[in-house]
Amino acid sequence: MVSAVMSAAEPKAARRRDWLTNVNAWLLLLPAIVLLAAFTHYPILSTLYHSFFSLSRGGEADFVGLENYTYMLEDDVFWQVLRNNIVFALATVPTSIALALLMAVWVDKKIAGRSFLRLAFFTPTVLPMIAVANIWLFFYTPDYGLLDQFLKGLGFSGHNWLGDPSTVMSCLAVMVVWKEAGFFMIFYLAALQTIPPELKEAAEVEGAGRWYFFRRVTLPLLMPTTLFISINALINSFKLVDQLVIMTKGGPNNASSLLLYYIYEVAFTFQDTAFAATLTVTLITILAGVALTKFVYLDRRIHYQ
After folding, report:
1. How far apart are CA 192 and CA 108, in angstroms?
2. Which residues are CB-contacts of 275 (< 8 A; sequence separation ≥ 6)?
3. Is the dihedral of CA 152, 158, 162, 164 positive or negative?
4. Following CA atoms 112, 94, 231, 101 in sequence, which dihedral angle do they give, to the nearest 10 degrees?
5. Looking at domain 75-301, which of 3.40.640.10, 3.40.50.2300, 1.10.3720.10, 1.20.1050.10 is its CATH number?
6. How many Å apart are CA 9 and CA 271, to the nearest integer?
7. For 289, what's the count of Cα atoms within 13 Å in the CB-facing half-sphere?
8. Is 281 within 8 Å of 51 (Cβ atoms)?
9. pLDDT tens track of the chain, all 305 residues?
């Protein structure tokens, strides 16, 4: 009789323990869920909602449906800044990743001054965006900038690097690569140090060269890191705004204007928050689509240890 009562009480005790475990887990997750909902999900839904209204500061909200999106598709400036952003991403993302991988492979070796090289490569990452913009503004200043002074020393004439539509985007791309490559290098360096040394020893026994080992072993094992870095680099290329405010303000003639800066300009200069919300929804959709495509495509080529 006693054993029957005890056996009947055991499932109840187990269910109570499971219930308490679930409650504790949700309580631990609650602060993160609240912050995520308040500062990520709610702003996205609110922005999507306001994109269907004609709303400016001090005005009344009128439901206009897809009118804002129709206007966006007919806006020549939108297409120009979108093309600028695509070109900018194609110039900075692969270059930053390739340079970061090259630096990581270099400083992963046992060479003299390795710690100093790691520090030198990583230092631009810790500098504030405003400081970086002012440093490179000094480089690019016509006649008085460091770059023009160097060219004049070689007998060449100066050039308005940020005032020329044919060079302004390249100048911004160089600056961004300089700042971000060291940050991505850290991830590659950490990934390289997780590769078992036995693989290299086995490859040497088999007579495989360094390039063959890198291409067939190292690079595939770095694919999870490459996927992570590529997504972050792509997002960074679409959220550039600090440097543009300091250096070019989107000029000349929108030649350096990028999508996020255009959103900032529409919202705070033209006071058109409804159209700014429409542009923001478009930006989020583009980034989500590209990120999803990268995960679907690159995930097939990833090799996990």
Report:
1. 7
2. 68, 71, 72, 266
3. negative
4. -20
5. 1.10.3720.10
6. 66
7. 6
8. yes
9. 545 544 555 667 777 777 888 888 889 999 999 999 999 889 889 889 888 988 655 556 778 888 999 999 999 999 999 999 999 999 999 999 999 999 998 988 878 878 888 888 888 998 888 888 888 988 998 888 888 888 888 888 878 889 889 999 999 999 999 999 999 999 999 998 888 888 877 877 777 778 888 888 888 888 888 888 988 898 889 988 888 888 888 888 899 999 999 999 998 888 888 899 999 999 999 888 888 887 777 666 665 54
Give me 186's structure tokens.
């850290």
pTM across the whole model: 0.84
Task: Decide if 55 contacts 71 (C-beta within 8 A).
Answer: no
Q: Distance (Å, rounded) from C-alpha 84 to C-alpha 252?
A: 13
Burial 222-249 (b: 16+ CB within 10 A, else e): bbbbbbebbbbbbebbbebbebbebbbe
Q: Are 130 and 49 in contact (CB under 8 A)?
A: no
Q: What are the residues facing 62 on neighbouring strands?
A: 54
* 305 touches 194 (CB < 8 A): yes
**What residue type is 59 in one-letter code?**
G
- With vertex at residue 35, the alpha carbon angle to CA 32 and CA 41, rounded to the nearest 5 degrees, is 110
